Amino acid sequence: MDFIDWISIPWESKHLSVELNQVTNCIKAEPHHASNYLSAGRLHLIRGDYEEGLKIFEQGISMVTFDDPQRSLLEQRKVHAETWIQRRVDIVSQCPYDIFSNIARYLTQKGAQECIGVCRIWRSRVFEDPGPWRKVSLRS
């Protein structure tokens, strides 16, 4: 299966969390097994957490011996994660304020809450507009 293929697999969030907890425990128990790092990094990438996936791959590279046959796969996955991070385009931060403001008016309160949870840039853009965002509750 290609790298892109397994990132696009539909996963349920709770299943990812359970699997991630299991593989994290495996890493703690057997820190020199490349397969554990490959699995954990893959799960982070599936969740969209590319930075954490990259950290896991780097950690694996530092822990796995040079003669481990899966070390090169860890190095490849690290490069792929770095590529994904560099390619990511944040449309909201690139969008002029007035255009973002017009788009944001169509968001529901739930949509606004999801936007402020994406990253700091999105959160600051959402709260820059004094209009509909005064009603956003940070509690779910």
Describe the structure.
- The chain contains 9 helices and no strands.
- It has 140 residues and is mostly helical.
- Helix 3 packs antiparallel against helix 4, helix 3 packs parallel to helix 5 and helix 4 runs antiparallel to helix 5.
- The longest helix has 17 residues.
- The termini are far apart.
- The relative contact order is 0.09.
Question: What's the gyration radius in Å?
Answer: 19 Å
What is the structural class?
mainly alpha
Low-confidence stretches: 1-11
Kindly state the percentage of residues in helix. 55-70%
Largest sheet: none
Using the alpha-carbon principal axes, give the shape: elongated
Query: Quick one: how many beta strands?
Result: 0
**Mean pLDDT score:** 80
Total of DSSP H or I helical runs spanning 4+ residues: 9
Per DSSP, what share of the residues sits in E-state strands of 2 or more residues? under 5%
